[in-house]
TrEMBL record:
It comes from the Bacteria. It comes from Paenibacillus albus. Pfam families: NAD_binding_11 (PF14833), NAD_binding_2 (PF03446). The keyword Oxidoreductase applies. Residues 8-167 form the 6-phosphogluconate dehydrogenase NADP-binding domain. SUPFAM superfamilies: 6-phosphogluconate dehydrogenase C-terminal domain-like (SSF48179), NAD(P)-binding Rossmann-fold domains (SSF51735). Keywords: NAD, Oxidoreductase. The keyword Oxidoreductase applies. This is NAD(P)-dependent oxidoreductase. InterPro entries: 6-PGluconate_DH-like_C_sf, 6PGD_dom2, 6PGDH_NADP-bd, HIBADH-like_NADP-bd, HIBADH-related, NAD(P)-bd_dom_sf.
Amino acid sequence: MLNKENTTIGFIGTGVMGKSMAGHLLNAGYSLIVYNRTKSRADELIAQGAVWKDTVAEVVSQANVVITMVGYPQDVEEIYFGQDGIISNAQAGTYVIDMTTSTPSLARRIYAESKNNGIHAVDAPVSGGDIGAREARLAIMVGGDASAFEALLPIFQIIGKNIQLLGDSGAGQHTKMCNQIAIASNMIGVCEAIVYAEKAGLDPNTVLKSIETGAAGSWSLSNLGPRMINRNFEPGFYVKHFIKDMGIALDAAKEMGLLTPGLELAKSLYDELASKGEENSGTQALYKLLAGEV
């Protein structure tokens, strides 16, 4: 049984969301080892008591739970399958949790290779952005064995609130695609509504208060709408990462023979936004494209 006394957590990827997630685990009393490609992004955690390691191999050789939260599927593949990666260096019995939004097929490959090496692997992408990460109320979508899920649940409960086991390996990633598909079209509507309010001469803050509790209400409207109005386009979730996610969802939908016109439109708009130099902005920067500000 995993508990704080016998668990050392390795956290790989301390970016916008990972840093907050790792911080909650540290504050909860877990021993924490960290690695990030850019060490300065882990400085705050190190100052709070986390132990820095220079390589992925060093992290996993000393941790019995390893969490990865990186950018792209190719990063995940390198971290797990590289010569100095997780599967080659983790001890049998280690639990590995990929919380990156990645492909279902890669999640299944990680699970299969891990199982061959006596390692317990789950895919557990999250939703909630920088706010959810900071406030420890992420939605966590888990794919994998029920026994691994039960063992890791106390850790998940430190960083999230809505935690669900969705099925076998890959199910967490498929669920995250459902999440991103729903967000994609919604973001267009949120941006258009705020641009419309402003063009009509209305106070957009008052309009937001009026519509966010009705049928139009959504997380994006309530949390990203105010950022658009205040011209705050700092990333809680990067445009470039959202484009990556939509690409994964489109590929998966094509494999299943599904029509996703809303998703296709959203990706085309975000591709245009990125081409105008906004790839490192937050997803709410789509407002700028629809308002004619880029």
